[in-house]
Structure formats: C-alpha cells, structure tokens
Amino acid sequence: MTADRLPFRDPRLPFGKRVDDLLGRLTLDERVALLHQFAPAVDRLGVPAFRTGQEALHGVAWMGPATVFPQAVGLGATWNEDLVRRVGEAVSTEVRAMRARDERVGLNVWAPTVNLLRNPLWGRGEEGYSEDPTLTSAIATAYTRGLRGDHPVYWRTAPVLKHWLAHNNETDRDTSSASVRPRVLHEYDLRAFRTAVEAGAVAGVMPAYNLVNGRPNHVSPYLREHLRTWTDQELLVCSDAGAPSNLVDSEHYFDTHEEATAAALRAGVDSFTDHGTDGSKITARVRGALDRGLLDASDIDAAVRRQLHVRFALGEFDPDLDPYADTDAFDTAEHRALALEAAEQAVVLLTNDGLLPLDPTAGQRVAVVGPLADECKLDWYSGTLIHRSSPLDGIRDRFGADRVTHAEGADVVRLRCAAGLLRVPEAGGTAQTAARGAEGALDPALLAGRTDLPPLTADAEGTEFALTDWGGGVLTLRAPGGLYLSVADDRRVRASADQPGGWVVQETFRLEPHGDGHLLRHIGTGGHVSVAADGAKVAAEGEETPTVFTVETVRRGVDEVAAAAEAADVVIVVAGNDPHINGRETEDRTTLALPGAQDRLWRAARAANPRTVLVLSSSYPYAVPDAAAELPALLWTAHGGQAAGTALARVLAGDVSPAGRLPQTWYAADADLPDLFDYDVIGGRQTYLYFDGRPLFPFGHGLTYTTFAYADLTAERRGDTVHVAFTVTNTGPVASDEVAQVYVRAVDPTVPRPHRELVAHRRLHLAPGAGRRLEFEVPVLAMGFWDVAHGRWTVEPGTYAFLAGASSADLRLETGLRVDGPPPAPRPVLERGLAAADYDEQRGTVIADRAKDSGDCVIPDDGGAGELLYRRCDLGAGVRAATLEVSGTGTVALALADGTELGRVDAAVPGGPYAYADLETTVDARGVQDLRVTLTGTVRLAGLRFAPAAG
C-alpha cells in the first residue's frame, strides 16, 4: 500500500484512529526524533518536517513585516473580548498567509501569555493581560478562540498558553522557586489557565523556567493532576527554550540529562525546545534514558501522540480539506483598521480636569515633547513594522503640522577624552539617514551588528550626541543622523542601530564617575569604551586601559522642553519606557518611579505652561503621585503597535472617547509593593483583591469624556448561577464606551477573602441619553474559595454583596444575596491528618518539594525559624500522640494557639532531603483547637497524623 493510501491519510476516519495508525508505523528512532522542537521529516511515509513554536503575542513575531497590534497588556486594558478575538483572528490569518510564503513560519503559536501581573516590577509584565484571574482568563479565551478559528474540525493555528505556572520574576528566573500554597494555587494561578483550556481553543501549554514549591515547572505534577483533567482534548506541552538543559545545568535538580529528560517526559512535556535546530542532543538523552530503564516506549508514544493530534488538527494531512490552506490575507485594510481600533480602545484616561479633549479646529499651538514623542516602540515579541505612527505623527496629522512643534528633551552632549572629542565618521552618521523610506523604516542593510562601517574616532571637531537617560543610570547615545551607538561582535563602537534591541541590547551604556571624569561602560558586554588610533572599542578585561571622558553639555533637554512649552497653547509630554530597556524578558524593574530625567521634563513643561498633559506610553505602571495631583490630565497606554500615534491623537482630539481600564493596580510608591519573590497574594495582601492601602489608581480605573449612571441592580440565584442585572445610562454630552464591572464580596467570611473580586464585566457603547439593561450569569462557584481544611472548592453559607460600577473602587450599586447551607465543618484531622502545606497562616516558611515527582512539604525560610497555624482542627474526644513525617535536621514543636505546648520532636533524619521518617510525640488535646507548629533548622515537614486517645 502506498503512503498516500494508508489509513492515517483517510479523512473519513476520526483523528484518534489516524493518529494511532501513523504512530504504529513509526519506528522507535523516528518517534524519538519527533520529540525535539524541530521534528524531522519521515520521508518513507510522506510526513513532512514540523516545528513547534511561532511567537504571536500581539502579531506575528520574528518573521519579518507583519501587522503589529498593541502589547498584550494593552489588549488587556481594552476589557473587550470581542475585539481581542478579532485580533486573534487577524494574527492567525497572517500566520497562515506568511506560512504560504515561508515554511519557517509555524502554525503552532506560542501565545497568549496568561501569567498574572501580580507584581508590577516584573520585567515581562507587558506580555500578560491583568493581575486578575477572571479578566486574564476572559481575554486569553477570546484570543485563543481567534487564533484557533471557528471550523469544527480544523484549526487555523494551534495556540499554546505561556508560562505554566506562577511565573512573575525574571531575576534568577531559572533557579528561583515560587512558594504557592494551595489556596493561592487554586484561587489565583490555576484559574488564569483553566477557563481558556476548558473553552476548547487551547492546543497546549508551555512550562515556565522557574520552580514552584521547590520543583521545576518542567517536571510539575500539576500538568497531570490539574491541566490534563480539565479537558478530554490531547494537550501539547512544549518546553521553554533551553529549559530541559536547565534541569541539570543551572537548577541542579537532576544529576544527569538522561534523568532530567525522562522525568520531564513522564511529567508530561511532549516537545523539547533545546539546542536550537539541533535535535541530536535531545534524541541522545532520550535514547540514554531508554537504555537505563528510566523510560519505556509508552512514555514516548504518549508525547508523540499529542504532537500528532495537533498536526492533524492543523490540516497537515488533509490539505484539500483544510479551510485555511489558501489564506492569503496579509496587511489588509481590515487588519490596519483593527490595529487602530485596538490602539484606541487600549488608551486609559487616568485624570482629567476638563482640559481634554482638545479642539483641533481651535487653532491651538501644540508642543509634543518627551523621549517617546516621535517613537513607535516595538518589544521583543513584535513583528517588523509595515506602518508606523508616533504620537508626533498622529498629532501633526490631526491638529495640523504647522501648529505642532516637537522637542525630544534629550540632553545634547559631546564626549571629550585625551585624544579629542568622540566623533562619528561620515559613513556612520548623517549619511545613513537617506536609507530611510517613506514609512520611517531603516534599510535592512543598516542594522546593529554591522562591522563594515568605520568605528568612532576622536578629533578636535567631534560629534554632538543625543543622550537619553532611561533611568537607573542606563543611557543611549544617538548620532545626528538618528542612529544609535552600538557595539558589534568585533567590540567596535559604531553609529549603526536604528533602535535599541536584540536579545542582548548592544545600544545601552552607563557613565561611571572616575576621578574628574567618567568611564563609559557598555552594558551589553560589561566592558568599558576605549579610544585608540584605530577607533573606539569596548576593551575586554585585562586589555587596554579604559578611556576617561568628560561630558560636555551642549544643550539641556529640560531647557528645550521648557522653551517649546512656553511657546505653545498646550503641551503633550510623552514619557515611558523602551521595551528593550529597564524591564523586559531577563530583567525586572527595581522601582515604580518614572526615570528622573523624564520626571524633570514634565515638571519643566508644567512650570512653563500649566496646560500640560502627560501621556505615559509604557509596558507597565508607574508611581507618579505628583503628576496625578498637579497636571490637568494624565493618560496611559501600552505601546500601541503600528497605529499608536494615530489612536492617541484621535483620543486627544475627542474623535474617540477614551474607555480603556487599568488591568492592574497602580501603586503610589515602592513601599506599597511586596517582595518580588512573595507569591502569596493572600498573606502578602497583594493586588486589588487584598491590598489594604490606597492605590494611586485602582484596578479597573479609567475615565471617559462623558458620564454614566448605574441603576436598579438585582442579583437572583437561579440554580448554579446568579442572575445579575442593572441599567447603565450615558448621562453626558458625547457618545462613549463604558466598561461596566461586577464584583462580589463575602460579607462575613470565616477565612480571609478578597475585599472584592471581579466576576463579570462588559464593554458597551452608548449614545448620549441612551441606556441599556445589562444581564450576567455568574456561577455560584465564583463566590467560593479553596477550603484547605477539606481539600475542595467550597461556597460557604452567608451573605454575599454584589457590586456594580466603573472600577474596583468606583462601585455605584450594591445588593445582597444569601447562600444557605450547613456551617463549615472543622478540619477532620483524625480522618485526614494535616498536610503541612494546608496551613491557614504562616510566618517565616516556604513550601518545598516533598519528592522530586510530587508532593509538598514546608521548611523554615533560609534555615531560620518558621511557624504554621491550622485553624479549627477537630481532635474529637482527645488525641494521645502525633506522628510527624519529617526529613532533615531541626525541631518541630506543636502547641495550641494560646501557646500551650503539646509536644515536640528533634529530627536528625539521614539520607538527604527526600528521605523521610515518621517521628512520634505524645500529645494531649481534645475538641476543636487552633494548632500552631513551629519549625527550626533545616527540617522538612510533610504532614502530621494523630492517634486518638484510648476509649
């Protein structure tokens, strides 16, 4: 039988039978080879090569020109699932169109990122949607539905959710462990993934680099215990890049790569992204694991089966039936309009005293100033711009180029050294600007990394550089021709980069005081700039003596901004971040503060002209209390993609009433933040759910150019749902969107619960005077929590307040709903014992791995002393002893909450951290008690069991 007539080619058969047929025809070597990201072809069966992974976070990334939509956090700020679904459709359509021209473009897309934005200092916050699991899962579900397509059989693309699980720090990201107690796991982190998976439009997940409870995510038992129980669909788990090797090389979790690879496969990883396109190392490791008996063929078959299900769903084996095979829609008018619509809906109006909107027909002189005034910034997961619109472009188009002035506000400096002034040779400076096209893009030949351009020299004339301080002492230097100083592989310094960028940014520097001058350190290589007769270069350690520079300021940026502001009727200051600098993948932020240089710019503008608006174009929140208090208007938008400038101008002009809402809390100061590594949102009082302070701007906040009234809230239980309804009316002068939000709060809970929790929302458009009755079906389970006492989700009886309004802090209506039922029972510790991690409160402990494959234990943090509290433990008529499952060395002491000591054990268990012993202590207690457990030393407590008193 020829390959094209084999059963796996028969479209009349269900995918499962076709997968089994193809799997049975593959040799063991062929199956092993499919485990690598770049799976080779099986020519004898006519099976082509396949690769997992195509970045598509907010457009097709890394594969050249494509439509660039707002950053993911900006899509989250729209609070609009229909819009985000349409963005997903456009992105996946362009994936298909680009795939038709370039086979390197993959159909297994790695998007969206659903990690919750717990801490705003996380460097990758731009990739997520929200700090709230309900909003995040709603937006993620919409995006994956758009990516998947609506055909009942075939998928347009196969989306993979990133990054499983509890991943919210870049610092030590491959070696740090998130301590996630069961309540946080079930109520917070898992929920962001679960809804999207249950919706049926997710092809799989990607584990994160970090560890959770002491165990790397790439061997997480949660893949088996949770993820794969949510759906009958075969889910593909793709490793993150290099993470399989990290299990040995950086995490030292396993001694050999064969052990690590086997453990990852058994845990549920199906595709290994490691060593680039070279699959030989992974296949050798799998073969070694088979030879050592660490794996058997069934483990490999399970992974390959999941991969093949995705490939069949993508129509690979049915090209004549694949409804998406002939898709060629790329950079269409519809996609361009959608990029503009998304950018408009992402704009959040934070404050406004009536200055906005501006009348574009009033003849006002507008000064557009600041480091991002004429920028259209991309990030690491962007495609190449086909179209570009900076704030300056958009405002000139809308208000008239003759009425708009521009001042970047960068200091203009010269750098003097012993050999003279640092100078850019003609070929590396202004002569290169001619290569820019009509859309402002640089000729691809003029990119950072070129080595054929002459390096910088020093002479009597020198070059004036625009110095931009991005905060934290990180700066860029730009030549008059618009190109940034960059360092190539030969370590020479040239003016050759259109923008800062790259995995290791080569365009950032730091001035370090040295004697009467400064050394110029290149951050990418870590070396200092040295100027010699053959030009400027970054000296390697031990090579030439670094050059000492004197910084001569030709013009101060604040003076330029002040002059422009004074001559204008209104000032638009555009500040924020470059997504490749100070907060990005591999690098967390260290502060919420706006960079000092940018802070000085808006203050200078306001001092010269009180009619000053601050626009923050950034990947994350800032703490700007002075700006919020002193300026007449303040706006935020994530980097908005190709249409960012046009969208901003339309909002400023009132063509569009802004209606974006903050997807995360904006705190007033760094002191409001928990430690970056504190993942306990409940105990740490984090996010809008638990934060006890007063934020600068609350979750869900955003103003419009009109007003809305809320009325007639009702909440009625109907079986497993609560029917919530209320009326929203536009009571102001202009048409606008409103984002109506519904929250719930347990009035008198027995355990710590959120101050209020989002359960529903809707973005709607209303004309002046128009109203609409909104209705929502809220699951009763949305009022619940994870009951650690009984290991289950529960909705306890009591009164719940349903609240409706315009933000988590602007709640206009409230009504109560009573849930009846038996009161919560105490912990049945005699029947179930106590799992150490199921505490109610803790101090000075972290959760760790009980064993390498599954289970939790609790240990004192940093070898000190820690305390665990277990409330309402039912000891019945009395207990006579407690058996503690422990490893390591130290003391475990049991006491009542009032301090009455019950017993203790001194542990010195040999055999390493995973060798446990049962140690018994006499205990005399009865009734329902709060138990306190104190841990010292390096002891690891897995659990406790109690023996009832005789009789």
From TrEMBL:
CDD domains: beta-trefoil_FSCN_BglX-like
Domain Fibronectin type III-like: 738-808
Transmembrane segments: none
Family, per entry: Belongs to the glycosyl hydrolase 3 family.
GO molecular function, one term: hydrolase activity
Hydrolase in keyword set: yes
InterPro entries: Actin-crosslinking, BXL, Cellulose-bd_IV, Fn3-like, Galactose-bd-like_sf, GH, Glyco_hydro_3_C, Glyco_hydro_3_C_sf
Annotated Cellulose binding type IV domain residues: 827-948
Protein name: Glycoside hydrolase family 3 C-terminal domain-containing protein
Keywords: Hydrolase, Signal
Domain of life the protein comes from: Bacteria
The species this protein was found in: Streptomyces tamarix
